[in-house]
């Protein structure tokens, strides 16, 4: 017996929820790399500001300068550090302008960037390096004690003169400035890269258990970038200015803000960490239009509001994600920042940072507390956990989603990789009627196809293949 469609909710008779947003074309060229998408901006708007450091307030990097920095770094990593396609490079650093430069340079070589929290313990770093099989570490001098036992080549992003006195006498490191000295971007030779190739390996604990490597492809980043900027395009907005104090090692800061906005031609103001006064000063100085944050920052904004010595009139969008935010906090922030959109979104590392986002329209009443509607290009189901039958609106069940932003698989502690089916839920269930299941061991196919298999793994997430 078929379902009854509810068009206003995007719910079809087939039991699938579809995005209510206008369809946005996602680049389909199979040979397109995420850096190709980014560096096109150097042709379209070479003199526009791409990156600026909030603390120093210097001139920053234009899109033409960003292209030069990325390609020169890629040449240096290849010719002087021996990075080859498929190699994993660990980036362990706080936010800085060189962070995205290095990330994009690694991916421009067809290599894999794996990012880590600078607050990780040596044991946690060692585990990730072992899992990812990293061959090089890009970091800062303050974190050298945490990687001393890795015995890997190290590139330091610090200013050489400032950091030299703090280095251990036996440290075998290369300063970034020395690495790129004399290197020309014209020497860059683009290797063959497909959208299906792995671009990044980001570690996520999911809901429980140890962190697991999430395999994200160039396609995932390209699709997610379209999804997180489609509302701006649909409204025909000009270039916007985003502030990024969320950590770039996290998918929120890396995909949703840094790559997603840069590839559209927006400016990203980089902050190493959150501090309320510093953020407000940066918003005023750089005329920031968009601020993405997490619930604790929203609570701070609810207390702060527009009061004080800062001109925040440029701010037209405040978005919260990474954890649920109560409607009461959103209502307070909306009152204190009148005229500014206050929205909430939902995403996971496994979805390259985006699943849904509120889309408020001026003049229309709305109720706070929702995480919005599905992003363009995403389909979903709400499934009864016991029967696995899809559910119509206003029913409680598990969410399953499908789209080109869904990860390629997961690297487990024992180096198992699951290539996932068409539907993914980061909460409890993965479900699809049409599925081919592959179990890979250390990235080599050893499994079998099985249309009626069940596996349970250590995070207590149930993967159901049917």
From TrEMBL:
The keyword Kinase does not apply. One of its GO terms (biological process) is phenylpropanoid metabolic process. The keyword Transmembrane does not apply. It catalyses: (E)-4-coumarate + ATP + H(+) = (E)-4-coumaroyl-AMP + diphosphate; (E)-4-coumarate + ATP + CoA = (E)-4-coumaroyl-CoA + AMP + diphosphate; (E)-4-coumaroyl-AMP + CoA = (E)-4-coumaroyl-CoA + AMP + H(+). It comes from the Eukaryota. InterPro entries: AMP-binding_CS (IPR020845), AMP-dep_synth/lig_dom (IPR000873). Keywords: ATP-binding, Ligase, Nucleotide-binding. Residues 40-410 form the AMP-dependent synthetase/ligase domain. Its cofactor is Mg(2+). Pfam families: AMP-binding. GO terms for molecular function: 4-coumarate-CoA ligase activity; ATP binding; trans-cinnamate-CoA ligase activity. This is 4-coumarate--CoA ligase.
